[in-house]
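Session log. Operator J.P. requested a structure for one protein chain; no other inputs attached. Running the standard single-chain path with token output.
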Amino acid sequence: MRDSIKNLAPTGAKEQVRELLVRYGERTSDRRPLPDFLVIGTKRGGTTSLWRYLIQHPLVPRLFPAWNTKTSHYFEENYERGEAWYRSHFPTERQRAALERKHGGPVKAGEAAPLYMFHPLAAGRVAELMPRAKMIVLLRNPVERAFSHWKERRGEGVEPLSFADALAAEGERTAGEFSEAHDWYSYRARGRYLEHLEPWLQRFDSSQLLFVASETFYREPAQTYAQILHFIGLPPHELPSYDVFNDRPSKGMDDGVRAELTDYYKPFNAALEDRLGMRFTW
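Structure written below.
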């Protein structure tokens, strides 16, 4: 494997190395256990920050190969690639054992994919392949989440409309079967949390699901991080700092739009609280 990488031509070398590593991962997939946990949502709810915290734990390996990513997108975009491809992203049994010997604890591998919670087929796919996995769900005030989602799309150059116009166009844009448009433009829909969580609640035991308010995570990152480590089954680990990553503050929302969204989400939030037995400060 190392000789193959050394012999690569300079042109396109990074892409060739990446492809070689992907193929190597697939060939060794039978020695790569499935992940122990998933961070399934929500988008713009702190999943990037949480993932950055998790991979600073010595017993949480990065995805393989170690490029800068937090997810394989397997259970939504890449499901047709198959289980061997998915397993290729996680450490081998030998690598797990080496980490456990070095750090004296259990290795817990995972990924953070905020689209999993929203994708209509993801819960069933996860339950079929990994029925004992644990899921972490960050839930942010849906009004703030929607605006932050829109700001992200504007920054990426894929959203030409104002926030109010984008909300008005959402139904037409996301009509039909689930597609890329649902990931891009589902500002309002993704905040109807219970609608998207029911498939997970129906397929997994309550002990496998941890729900965390994003506002609590932002306000008390160290305590929330400790809670999540305990839930996953990892020993405590303190970080030198708890920086916020990929932040897009929601300041600047039109007051009228904010009021409309706040009123819109009230019954959905109430139903969510009743179903989860939690109270949110939204």
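Operator note: The mean pLDDT is 93.
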